[in-house]
Amino acid sequence: MAIKTYIQAIISCVLLLWLIGCEKPPDVVTDKPSRVALSLAELAGEAYQPVKVNFLHLTEIAPAQDANGSSKITAYVILLDAAGSAIKFPGTFRFELYEYIRDLLAQKGRRVAIWQQQDLMSFADNSLAWQDYLRAYQFELAFEATSNKQYMLVVTYTNPNGKRLISEIKL
Fold first, then answer.
1. Is the pLDDT of residue 34 over 70?
2. Distance between CA 61 and CA 74 in Å, rounded?
3. Residue 167 in contact with residue 153, Cβ under 8 Å?
4. How many other C-beta atoms can be found within 10 angstroms of the C-beta atom of residue 80?
5. Where are the domains of the chain?
6. Mean pLDDT for the chain?
7. Higher model confidence: residue 113 or residue 15?
8. Which CATH architecture group holds 50-170?
9. Across-strand partners of 133?
10. Residue 137 · residue 130 · CB < 8 Å
């Protein structure tokens, strides 16, 4: 009986050691891509590209500083990724200004102004327009405002792949 208990104990210990710690050590060099390589490939995908463009509510029409000066629109634009985070990304921005018409369903009347497209494809140009403390782009748009009139400012953002995102704000 003692031999049977002794054999059972040895078999139990061998099984326990086999279940707990007898793994093959990982290979240093593998043919499979690592998880890090996969995540870098995922980063290059659309998950971290802009999916929405919005104006910050700081966007405003600033009156002329003197009699000879013109008023201007200071537009603050943010690009949002799929997670809703404001990001810096190359692209082009086009701004158009329309009369605001309250009774119209679209609320946009006659186009009043269109500005030259802002090309922020280069790193230097992109960095000049980027305001890091706001996590937004800032654009100064010269404009002769008519007092007591409301407008709709529309921005069209185009990414390097040609995808367009549009947003508008009432001023």
1. no
2. 6
3. no
4. 16
5. 2-43, 50-170
6. 80
7. 113
8. Sandwich (2.60)
9. none
10. yes
Q: What is the pLDDT of residue 135?
A: 93
Tokens 């000066």 belong to 69
The token pair that represents 99 in the structure block: 């009369």
The H or E element containing residue 74 is strand 72-80
Residue 140 DSSP one-character state: E
pLDDT for residue 156 is more than 50: yes
Looking at the predicted structure, is the pLDDT value of residue 92 above 70?
A: yes
Q: Map residue 30 onto helix, strand or coil.
A: coil
How far is the C-alpha of 125 from the C-alpha of 115, rounded, in Å? 17
CA triplet 50, 55, 56: central angle to 5 degrees?
Answer: 115
Residue 136 backbone dihedrals phi, psi, to 5 degrees: -150, 165
What pLDDT score was predicted for residue 25?
56
Which one, of 4, 157, 7, lies nearest residue 93 by Cα? 157
Whole-model pTM?
A: 0.69
CB 120 within 8 A of CB 126: yes
Which bin fits 135, alpha (ψ -120 to 50), beta or left (φ > 0)?
left
Query: Is the confidence at residue 38, as pLDDT, over 50?
Result: no
DSSP state of 160: T
